Amino acid sequence: MFGANLKHLCREAPSISGLCRDLGINRTQFNRYLSGESFPRPDVLHRICTFFDVDARILLEPVDQIATTSGFVMQHPELAGFLGPHLTEISQDLLPDGFYRFIRRSFMDQQKFVEALVYVYRLGDFCFVRGHEAREAMSRVGLPESPRGREFGGFFFRQDRGVAAIVARRGATSGSFTYLHRVPSLENNTWTGFTTRITHESENSHRMTRIVWEHLGRGMAGALRVGRAAGFRTYSQLTESDQALLRPDKPFA
Fold first, then answer.
1. Are 141 and 202 a contacting pair, CB within 8 Å?
2. For residues 52, 55, 57 and 63, what is the CA-based torsion angle, rounded to 10 degrees?
3. CB–CB of 1/9 below 8 Å?
4. Disulfide check for 180: which of 50, 98, 167, 193 has CB 3.0–4.6 Å away?
């Protein structure tokens, strides 16, 4: 079990030789660990566990059940079979890296639409999203307009026929849940779905609305254009494609 676990932990290492140097373990001895021919001394085991952020249970239990019990919640063994790590592995075909323009109806003013920019990227096996609320949208509700105050971040996971994201501003002062699926288009660069605010019920605002994402690619030109123009739009300012997908004349069901 230890040899199998060690192979699993080493899969992201650029080279075994470099890993051995980082661990301070002789390469020949490390190969014996990998093959299951020998086990490390307690001090060496501690060094390995510290390096990979696991514990001594790697001697007896599969690492995919114990390696992340104190890390990313969706990889916790308690959620195995429900929200396991396989859901966080999202292919580039399903949702490619890069900048996206999104547009949705304003939660506060049903006559307006909010357009802004987000960035999707990968780190390891996870797909993340970062962005900034439009300055105009923040000022209307009396929230900080600084870049840090407007910044939000989150992660994606797979859902039936699409992807979903849980997103929050710093300190989880506000959050949202978004579901997206790709729709046929000439450039094959459009996703639609819905987004909902994670907040209490209010008579003065709405909590759920349709949303459209348009992939702009990885270049800065399109991103800067959208970022600089981020803010509120009227219905007449929407593109025909946005009007057709957002369907503001039909209540969200």
1. no
2. -30
3. no
4. 193
**pTM across the whole model:** 0.69
Contacts of the segment 192-196: beta carbons below 8 A, 24+ positions apart: 192/245, 193/162, 194/252, 195/104
Strands (E), 133-189: 151-159, 162-169, 175-183
Residue with tokens 């920019």: 117
Q: What residues contact 174, with CB distance under 8 A and at least 6 apart?
A: 168, 197, 198, 199
Tens of pLDDT, residue by residue, the chain (253 residues): 888 888 888 887 888 888 898 889 999 999 999 988 888 888 888 888 888 877 777 777 777 666 444 456 776 777 777 877 678 889 999 999 999 999 999 988 889 999 999 999 998 778 999 998 777 666 665 666 677 777 899 999 999 899 999 999 887 777 899 999 999 888 889 999 999 998 877 777 788 999 999 999 999 998 999 988 888 999 999 999 999 999 999 988 8
| Residue carrying the six token digits 């025909």 | 240
